[in-house]
Amino acid sequence: MGSVSATTSSDVLADRLAALRRDGRRALVAYCTAGHPDRARSLALLRGLAANGADVIEVGVPFSDPLADGPVIQRSSQRALEGGMTLAGTLALVQEAALDVPVVLFSYLNPLIAAGTDVLERAAAAGVHGVLVTDLPLGADPERERWLGEGPLEFVRLVAPTTPAERLAAITAHGRGFVYLISRLGVTGESAELPADLPESIARVRAVTDLPICVGFGVSRPEQARAIGAHADGVVVGSAIVRAADTRVDAACALVRDLRTALDSR
Amino acid sequence: MSTVQIEERFGAFGGRYVPETLIPALDELTAAYRAAMADPVFTRELDDALRHYVGRPSALSSAPRFSALIGATVWLKREDLNHTGAHKINNALAQAMLAVRMGKRRIIAETGAGQHGVATATACARLGLECVVYMGEEDMRRQSLNVFRMRLLGATIVPVTSGTRTLKDATSEAIRDWVTTCPTSHYIIGSVVGPAPYPAMVREFQACVGREARAQLLERTGGLPRTVVACVGGGSNAMGIFHAFVPDAAVELIGVEAAGEGLQTDRHSASLSLGSPGVLHGALSLLLQDANGQVHPAHSVSAGLDYPGVGPEHAHLRTTGRATYVAVTDAEALEGFKLLARLEGVIPALETSHAVAWLAANRGRWSASDHILLCVSGRGDKDVAQVSEMGILAT
Ligand SMILES: Cc1ncc(COP(=O)(O)O)c(C=O)c1O
User: Fold this and answer.
1) Does pTM surpass 0.95?
2) Fold of A7-264
3) Does A143 contact B at CB distance below 8 Å?
4) What is the C-alpha separation between B240 and B92, in angstroms, rounded?
5) What is the pLDDT of residue A4?
6) ipTM of the predicted structure?
7) E strand or H helix at B236, and its extent?
């Protein structure tokens, strides 16, 4: 297992992001869908993302009805399911990858529920550090939120541009690891342009929390990552990586390298 | 003015399992709905529209020849006589009026059979709203007449090509649109499904069906029915007719799901009979899914029942035992379609035909003095092309 998992801290994700912040660096969070395009290439991609500069890897658990995802991640999810990928398979993949960067599971609630109440412990044992649930907003299901919040994984919460200030404070108070700021209204996917009010959105979150802030949804190009790096602690890139990986793992790795260079050359 | 009941959960079921982006939109909708229902101007306008535009109250027809077959007195609650031909207009028009109140001029809807899409397009035409309807490619093929009607009414139809290309994927696409446009758009969901406040709100907008029928039966028979029967897709016509009878403990409530090619096959839509708890489209309810929590594609000859989930209140009523859910196959439903046409001169929607078929299959179950209330949720005009292609008139 990778060196990160061997540390004694229970907040590996938070520690990693804090260390980056201390060094004045910005975090690159790279997303891929487990089992996409197939298991072998998914494993190569996980390792390639880590080797080419990702600080954190978000591993998407494929789901049949990904209603927060745009066409690129929807298709990757469907392809992974056709290849037989499951949540158990995702954990096995993460374990086999033995990455030296923190791993965050990115899932819809239903596959997590179906996997049983010990799934968080199993995930931790496989080398997962954090969990993010797209369709479990604060207050939606206190019992399951407690399960996720008190388990062995750092429960990363999402905030949206529509989230009012009071709610922002409540959400971030419950979050661990980092705050995932959704950059714009809508589902995952690439955008030609970042929302003009993104700096203000980041400042609104900054005002209510000390947690690092990573910005995702619609971030795809190196210059966008660099622009966000001026305000946030990190960027999350998903669809662009998945789209590149549709054709070649190498292409996805090259994109991650370019994103890394851009983030470091602010 | 009594305040409306807006349950966030029905027992263990319901909730708001949606991306964070939608939470403020759902809060705004809940507040606007509560305020509208407490405002006599809104309720009077809604009442007026239901009466003079939709044609409410809908008739309660006796069904002498069908009753003779069943062995009890069957009453037909004629939602098929509503403007646009189904119960769907009750909800679509009310929500469109609510959208106007909220200042939202763009409407999103999903549709399976096309009835909800037609109802929403109709309401939007009347109120001057932009209307975008998501519809699975497979359903567009099955219900081409309704596609034409929606376009004629000025709606934009977006074909959905992902997943199973039916109602499930159309609903996902509609939600994706709403996540992107919620400050300016209202999503008119077509059944008692989705995140709170939708299941409670849609039930209320359909509850006129049961309230009217209860009063009509009391007036015509001096009593309450022994049994109330309705088909269940998402469950809105069933919740609409059940709601007024839930406190009447002696009244049996029967929801009829689609057994498709049979409950022993994996091609059915019987989420209440065979589903397990799961989260889809914003609510925890009973769901057709595999052991890994992946949603299992549904099947039914009737596009309006072809959905792997069901409204959370039905899951609750099943759990408490207050309502009973049964299932009827495609083949039986087609017989029901023909039966009501031949015996009563009423061509029911294929969805409704499931409820007709269940009654026919259970004839002799009641005593002659019993009254049965059947919700004729819609008319079958939309289905005649599909059914004629299947060649059932040959018999
Ligand atoms: C006539 C008719 N009945 C029933 C249904 C099923 O929906 P619900 O269960 O919400 O009433 C539909 C759906 O399209 C319909 O058109």
Assistant:
1) yes
2) TIM Barrel (3.20.20)
3) no
4) 14
5) 40
6) 0.94
7) helix B236-242
